[in-house]
Design brief:
By secondary structure, the chain is α/β, with parallel strands linked by helices. It is 43% helix and 20% strand. The chain has one domain (5-193): 3-Layer(aba) Sandwich (Rossmann fold), CATH 3.40.50. A hairpin with a 4-residue loop joins strand 3 and strand 4 (92-100). The protein is globular and about 55 Å long.
């Protein structure tokens, strides 16, 4: 039950944390499950699209933290979970879910996962991706316009209204909880190799422990 390794990858929007998490998921395949904090945004189905688009999605209160904690505990116990799926174009949860397997390694990535003490206590390794603000805003603009169906004006407006101030208030201070700080995220090949080796070591130790029982 306690042999699963829980890794948290935090950092500002556009820092490269998602790229790092995906690279780990691609490398380890079905031995690693990836959770995205964004999928745990609270449902806002009662609001219009215009009202939802004006919400502050970079504040801790925007997330269904209790559901995430419940799911982390269930995964720790070896239970698969049904994770909600967030729709960025609609600014709301979709009606679909995806199954997350209780694999040997669980990676949780998101901007605010180190802000909450209960989430922190459930992470064995905490990685903060630290990237220059100018790089982050450029990456965010390119991502939101090309991948999430947003227009340029809305992305820039949201950045200055909520993303930047919430980063300074919540995300940047949470860096002090990190065990490892990685500049440039998935672009940092040395850091990726070190993290990969740490996970391999965990899997090998778990295998040896199981063999010796």
């Amino acid at each position: 039950m306690n042999n699963r390794l829980f890794i948290g990858i935090a950092g500002g929007s556009g820092s490269g944390k998602t790229t790092l998490a995906k690279q780990l998921a691609d490398y380890f395949g079905d031995r690693l499950s990836l959770l995205r904090h964004d999928d745990y945004y609270k449902s806002q189905a009662s609001l219009t699209l215009e009202e939802r688009s004006a919400l502050n999605f970079d504040h801790p209160d925007a997330f269904d933290t209790q559901l995430l904690i419940q799911h982390l505990d269930e995964l720790r116990q070896g239970k698969d979970i049904l994770c909600p799926i967030y729709n960025y174009s609609l600014h709301d949860r979709s009606s679909e879910f995806r199954t997350i397997k209780a694999t040997e390694v669980i990676v949780l990535e998101g901007i605010l996962i180190f802000e909450n003490p209960e989430i922190l206590n459930r992470l064995d390794i905490k990685i903060f991706v630290d990237t220059d603000a100018d790089v982050r805003i450029i990456r965010r603009i390119k991502r939101d316009v090309s991948e999430r169906g947003r227009d340029l004006d809305s992305v820039i407006s949201q950045y200055f209204a909520t993303v930047k101030p919430m980063h300074e208030l919540f995300v940047e201070p949470s860096k002090r909880h990190a065990d490892v700080i990685v500049p440039e995220g998935g672009m940092n090949r040395v850091a990726l190799e070190m993290i990969t080796q740490r996970i391999i070591s965990h899997i090998e130790k778990k295998g040896a422990s199981t063999t010796n029982v």
